[in-house]
Design a protein that fits this description.
Layout (H helix, E strand, L loop, with lengths): L14 H13 L12 H13 L7 H4 L5 H17 L3 H5 L2 E3 L2 E3 L12 H6 L13 E5 L5 H9 L4 E6 L2 H13 L6 E5 L10 E6 L6 H4 L22 H9 L4 E10 L4 H7 L5 E2 L9 E5 L5
Parallel strand pairs: 3-4, 3-6, 4-5, 6-7
Antiparallel strand pairs: 1-2, 7-9, 8-9
Length: about 300
């Protein structure tokens, strides 16, 4: 199988022209976008930002830069791997963005993409009064993107972040250290609430919620992510059910649970007779539930 490459003349082209060519090459392939990008244009930009070590937005002076020979080769390698193997781009660049923060990622963790990012950037308003929240528990932290973004957004919080996967927590530890949050975010390896103690004002979780049959029919890109972090039994409720059942003793009386249920949302409403508030998002995303502690007892 031949590599897919930029035209040789691109080595002498400006970044603006390279972006156009990358977008055209990506756009003609049958790729799935949804792991931190939503289009070929987004992916082309992400490749350039990574290889040239740039920040968005790009000004006109930057767009006129010519690539070095190494940068040109690195772009071609990313392009080839992305198109031929359909590996999600963040696994190739080892970086993903969440709440405007850069996180290290690899195939030990899911690629950050939860709409909870918008909720955090909006200070949890109008759903949660953050001034009443002091202690937070995140279940299934993965890369740590939610817990660490919460810590950055709200300096007064103390956060416990758990995951059953030791490899995932290794990635979370890398990000915790990089963001200098070791004193405020405690990482614990455990299965949901096992061996945890104390109560929290807020429990937040983006657990696995994809039914097995649905997972088997997802685009190839999803096959590179840890299945353990995606699949949740026949109806997608294996972990959601346990969290709803086991959360009450860990919540303060006026606390709340925020849980992403994604494509299992309809099943959640069918199975559970709970007063659920479904959080709305301006920039896309759905299936994030808010349930007050008093309704979980």
């Amino acid at each position: 199988m031949n590599n897919i490459c930029l035209q040789s003349t691109s080595m002498h082209s400006k970044i603006s022209d390279i972006l156009t060519e990358l977008e055209e090459l990506l756009d003609r392939e049958h790729l799935f976008y949804g792991h931190g990008t939503s289009s070929a244009k987004d992916e082309a930009l992400a490749m350039v930002l990574s290889v040239f070590d740039l920040n968005y937005p790009l000004d006109n002076d930057v767009l006129s830069i010519l690539p070095s020979s190494k940068q040109w080769l690195d772009l071609n390698e990313l392009l080839s791997q992305r198109i031929l193997n359909k590996i999600p781009l963040p696994y190739l660049t080892n970086e993903a963005f969440f709440c405007d923060h850069k996180f290290f990622v690899d195939d030990r963790v899911l690629i950050p993409r939860s709409p909870i990012a918008e909720l955090i950037k909006n200070n949890l308003e109008p759903w949660i009064n953050i001034n009443r929240v002091k202690r937070v528990l995140e279940i299934g932290t993965g890369s740590g993107c939610i817990a660490l973004s919460m810590a950055k957004q709200f300096p007064h919080l103390k956060i416990v972040a758990t995951d059953i996967s030791a490899p995932a927590l290794e990635v979370a530890k890398i990000n915790t250290k990089a963001m200098k949050l070791e004193n405020r975010v405690q990482l614990i390896q455990t299965d949901l609430f096992t061996n945890l103690s104390g109560r929290f004002d807020l429990i937040i979780s983006n657990p696995p919620y994809v039914a097995q049959e649905i997972f088997e029919n997802l685009p190839t890109e999803y096959s590179f992510e840890p299945q353990q972090a995606l699949v949740a039994g026949e109806n997608g409720l294996d972990f959601i059910s346990r969290i709803l059942q086991d959360a009450p003793p860990f919540l303060n009386d006026d606390g709340a649970l925020i849980i992403e249920t994604g494509i299992a949302s309809t099943e959640v409403e069918r199975v559970y007779n709970l007063p659920i508030t479904w959080i709305s998002f301006e920039h896309g995303g759905e299936g994030v539930a808010l349930i007050e502690a008093k309704h979980l007892v």
